[in-house]
Structure formats: C-alpha cells, structure tokens
Amino acid sequence: MVTACPVNFEFMNYTIITSQCKGPKFPVKECCSAFLDFACPYTEQLNDLSNDCATTMFSYINLYGKYPPGLFANQCKGGKEGLECPAMSPASAA
C-alpha cells in the first residue's frame, strides 16, 4: 500500500530547475545539478518507496518545466538506494 507523500510538492518553487534546465538540448550537467539542488533536501521521503513522493514530485517538475517524460530519471542516475546527494555540511544541517 502506497501512502500519500508527507511533503507538499504542489506549491514548491521550481525555478531552481526551470531557470537552469532549458530545452531544446536540456544540458545534462545543468539539469542534473539543478534537480539535485531541488530534490536533495527531501531524499529521505523521495527514496521511501512506501509513499508517492517521487511520483508526485516528478509530475510537478514536468508540469512546471514542460520537460519530456523521463528526462531526469534517464539523465540523473542515482545509486541503487535512490538519489545520491552530497552530504550536508555541518553548517547547513544545523
């Protein structure tokens, strides 16, 4: 049973992605960097397969950015555990 996502992705600001990841070429480095900047604060929820956070987030990213389906999933490979984000520095974690 999949539970609802505890993070409300509907009203988030997606300009971090839409301002850096632009078509028609959708440069991998810029797109993946912007995607990780947006998604990394929510890795715990996004990598939890018992909720629908990842599906919900991707649907809003595609809605606001008008991206081709699967753009980030195909370009920005995570590890087998899901998204791989840089460790937060002690200052930003505080």
TrEMBL record:
Pfam family, one: LLG1
Alphabetical list of PANTHER family matching this protein: GPI-ANCHORED PROTEIN LLG1-RELATED-RELATED, GPI-ANCHORED PROTEIN LORELEI
InterPro entries named among the record's database cross-references: LLG1-like (IPR058888), LORELEI-like (IPR039307)
Name by which UniProt lists this protein: GPI-anchored protein LLG1-like domain-containing protein
Residues of the GPI-anchored protein LLG1-like domain: 7-83
Domain of life, per lineage: Eukaryota
